[in-house]
Amino acid sequence: MKRILCLLTAVIYVVMLCGCSTTYQAKMSPVETTAAVTPKETTAEPAVQQSAAPSPSETPGDWAANYTAFLEDNYDVITALWPEGLTGVGFIDLDLDGTPEMVLFDMGASATLGVQLFDYVDGKVWCVSSVQPDAAGAFGAEHMSALSVCASYFESFRLMRGNDGKPYFCVTSANGTIDSSWEEIIRFSSQDGFLTLQSVCYRDSLCNTETGLVIAETYEVGGTESTEEQYNKALSAEKAAKDLGYEAKGVFLWNDMSRYDTTCNGLLAMARDAAAAYTPIE
Which of 34, 39, 145, 177 is in Cβ range 3.0-4.6 Å of 129 for a Cys bridge? Predict the structure, then answer.
């Protein structure tokens, strides 16, 4: 009798085990779960469609490795130019040529942060704009713009579409002290393969230090002195352009103080993470 019960128990166990194995294999099979999936159509405009940001383990491209190598090779120069350290690293394709420019933020000396722009052309990194006057001597003045940028966010660089239907990046550069302030809209384009900066309109305001009220203003349009009326006309035209909603990305020192600092390793970590977060424009 005991032998019969043992035999019956063994048969039941084998049947249950086979059933569990069949169920497990059915759950793990990817064929039926993916065969019916149909990609959704997208209505995004080709000029502004953003692809998914790569994970930090992926390689964004040769441009990222070359920018990072440039920061490492020139760290002594960077330390001399910015002894307090650079606070932000990001990559934005400002001239829309398919290869992003490197955007570096410094500590800032007033209300906003100073910005340095580097382009990667013909296998070499070039400095094309900086708020630090000595940068031209340190990195070469061949393609250095007379214009510089003061801003505090990567999102300050906006992708727009003008009345001609063409997309372009621009930034509102501004700064000020207790007795004066200025604001300039700058457009980005490309000349001979290098990122170039063009002033759209500029306003300089002189303020009363006691009341804070503006007591005098000067204006420029396209880099040339203008009247207030001409300035307002240029400003209105720029504001009429369509913001295409592209979100420029980067990494700031204070985003992760356990990973980033003002050392070379901290700067390189910011650069690598910023490259991984870069979202191309298709």
Answer: 145
